[in-house]
């Protein structure tokens, strides 16, 4: 097993995840089987209880694991299926060690950060790296390990020390380190000092970078790379420039041009790994498809404007999988994607008095959009604005896609304005029990513990009888069952389903017991679809999510040709 560690210096959020994913992709195009692990130094057990505005999106895996959004990058780029074990947090490690101490596993020894915490980290990495992550069921050849945060932070110290020890545990020929650093441009001058200091700190902690990946807004000049090479104790060809690009899907091509795999091969002695011809052929095909995809991106001129009506629009990472799913679909439809971010509260009547400028701007974005998307979220804030946007989409035949909360919003809107239940509500959104609770709390979900207690993970959705007309079902290939990932506490009240369906709102997909509403669709509408599941979690760069693909195609006016093909 070979390990490639990706660490970061100077600032966090510098692009380690994209560089790690792109490096993994390049290994995969050479025929290697690749896995990935993300280390997050925070004390939380997982990301499930963290605010999207603080840490970005919570990504959900097949096994129901609520993990860091970078695991979504790994799955999308590498087309692999990870588990909750692939996300290591300080909380998980300390819980594991404390549990062992309570069992008496340490035989009376004083339990300390070194060696007990550091040993637990190393054992976790070695164990998880061997878990198969693709359809072959075979052990991976390489594992990309991303260390979150910034080297030098107090919370990451045990992980840095564990990785220092790890290089000798597995052998230095099986361990390579990519350090990602920032090269700021000040008054037109490219400054190398932050990178010099970051690498010096890293070396002081016992880790020597094999590659220094320099993030910058522009291409680095040769004197800049030469200076970094000189002061960071690496060769000039070990300094890679990762400047801003028109699309992150160009990053693998940029790294390949700078021969990153050849550099890592020297250190890891990759020629000792026997490659299966089948995987080599798949790798070549993958690389050709990827290059074709990026070339299409550069030639797209027609645009499609999507209004994303959300609750966490101040931090775009809150919807990173939604954004990526729209990008994947736009590439397939050969459209240049424009996302207009609409804060849902700005659409509500109160905003017309408190902030008229934002109110009129928000409604202009909604009314001029080619499609309206309402993604998932929690809590009452902004939901009346979402309902208003949904009403506009339904009445004006504008393509609409509702995800999780967005499906529930569509049900409430339809009940109010078509069924005439003007006080229709969700139990989540009001403190007092509403007279017409269209959305109710799921009985098996805990009301006292929030972490890991929702309906999570991969679950089947059954298309109902006589739904062959469904546009979404046709995009799925006319299948009877689809498996998608879920993350929710509330569901459509089955008591109101007959009345809603009689009024024209079709629940074309239900769970395997026929009790939970999974997909709604309006028949006589260009595209009015809601899903209780989160299809964005399974969208891939070369295989877009079907609900998003249908929505983007309908918004672009090419849905029928897409279905016919």
UniProtKB/TrEMBL annotation:
Domain CTP synthase N-terminal: 2-270
Sorted UniProt keywords: ATP-binding, Glutamine amidotransferase, Ligase, Nucleotide-binding, Pyrimidine biosynthesis
The UniProt record lists the keyword Flavoprotein: no
Reaction(s) the record says it catalyses: UTP + L-glutamine + ATP + H2O = CTP + L-glutamate + ADP + phosphate + 2 H(+)
Functional pathway: Pyrimidine metabolism; CTP biosynthesis via de novo pathway; CTP from UDP: step 2/2
GO molecular function terms noted in the UniProt entry: ATP binding; CTP synthase activity; identical protein binding
Top-level taxon of origin: Eukaryota
EC number: 6.3.4.2
GO biological process per UniProt: 'de novo' CTP biosynthetic process; pyrimidine nucleobase biosynthetic process
Transmembrane spans: none
Residues annotated as domain Glutamine amidotransferase: 315-548
Gene Ontology cellular component list: cytoophidium; cytoplasm
CDD domains: CTPS_N, GATase1_CTP_Synthase
Protein function: Catalyzes the ATP-dependent amination of UTP to CTP with either L-glutamine or ammonia as the source of nitrogen.
Family membership: Belongs to the CTP synthase family.
NCBIfam families recorded: PRK05380.1 (NF003792), PyrG (TIGR00337)
Protein name: CTP synthase
Annotated source species: Lipomyces tetrasporus
């Amino acid at each position: 097993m070979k390990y490639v560690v990706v660490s970061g210096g100077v600032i966090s959020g510098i692009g380690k995840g994209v560089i790690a994913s792109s490096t993994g992709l390049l290994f995969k195009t050479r025929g290697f089987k690749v896995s990935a692990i993300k280390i997050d130094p925070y004390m939380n057990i997982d990301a499930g209880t963290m605010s999207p505005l603080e840490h970005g999106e919570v990504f959900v895996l097949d096994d129901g694991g609520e993990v860091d959004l970078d695991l979504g990058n790994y799955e999308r780029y590498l087309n692999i299926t990870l588990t909750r074990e692939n996300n290591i947090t300080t909380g998980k490690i300390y819980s594991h060690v404390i549990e062992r101490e309570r069992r008496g596993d340490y035989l009376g020894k004083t339990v300390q950060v070194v060696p007990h915490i550091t040993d637990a980290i190393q054992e976790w990495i070695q164990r998880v790296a061997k878990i198969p992550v693709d359809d072959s069921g075979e052990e991976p050849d390489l594992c990309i390990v991303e260390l979150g945060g910034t080297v030098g932070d107090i919370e990451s110290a045990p992980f840095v020390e564990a990785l220092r020890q790890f290089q000798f545990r597995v052998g230095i020929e099986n361990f390579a380190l990519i350090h990602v650093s920032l090269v700021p441009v000040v008054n037109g001058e490219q400054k190398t000092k932050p990178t010099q200091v970051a690498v010096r700190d890293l070396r002081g902690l016992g880790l020597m970078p094999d590659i220094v990946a320099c993030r910058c807004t522009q291409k680095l000049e040769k004197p800049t790379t030469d200076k970094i090479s000189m002061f960071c104790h690496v060769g000039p060809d070990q300094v890679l420039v990762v400047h801003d690009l028109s699309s992150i899907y160009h990053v693998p091509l940029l790294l390949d041009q700078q021969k990153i795999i050849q550099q890592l091969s020297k250190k890891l002695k990759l020629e000792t790994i026997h490659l299966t011809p089948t995987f080599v052929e798949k790798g070549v095909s993958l690389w050709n498809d990827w290059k074709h995809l990026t070339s299409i991106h550069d030639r797209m001129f027609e645009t499609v404007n999507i209004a994303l009506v959300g609750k966490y629009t101040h931090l775009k990472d809150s919807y990173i999988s939604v954004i990526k799913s729209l990008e994947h679909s736009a590439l397939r439809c050969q459209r240049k994607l424009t996302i207009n971010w609409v804060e849902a509260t700005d659409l509500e009547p109160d905003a017309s008095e408190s902030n008229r400028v934002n109110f009129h701007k928000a409604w202009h974005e909604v009314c001029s959009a080619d499609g309206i998307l309402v993604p998932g979220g929690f809590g009452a804030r902004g939901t009346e604005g979402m309902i208003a946007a949904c009403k506009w989409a339904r009445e004006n035949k504008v393509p609409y896609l509702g995800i999780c909360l967005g499906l529930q919003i569509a049900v409430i809107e339809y009940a109010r304005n078509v069924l005439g239940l003007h006080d229709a509500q969700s139990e989540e959104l009001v403190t007092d029990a509403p007279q017409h609770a269209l959305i109710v709390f799921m009985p098996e979900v805990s009301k006292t513990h929030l972490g890991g207690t929702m309906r999570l993970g991969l679950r089947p959705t059954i298309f109902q009888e006589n739904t062959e007309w469904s546009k979404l079902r046709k995009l799925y290939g006319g299948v009877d069952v689809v498996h998608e990932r879920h993350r929710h506490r509330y569901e459509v009240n089955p008591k109101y389903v007959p009345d809603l369906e009689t009024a024209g709102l079709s629940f074309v997909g239900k769970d395997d017991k026929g009790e939970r509403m999974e997909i709604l669709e309006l028949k006589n509408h260009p595209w009015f679809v809601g899903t209780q599941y989160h299809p964005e979690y399974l969208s891939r760069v070369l295989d877009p999510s079907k609900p998003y693909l249908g929505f983007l195609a309908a918004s672009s006016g090419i849905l029928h040709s897409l279905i016919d093909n």
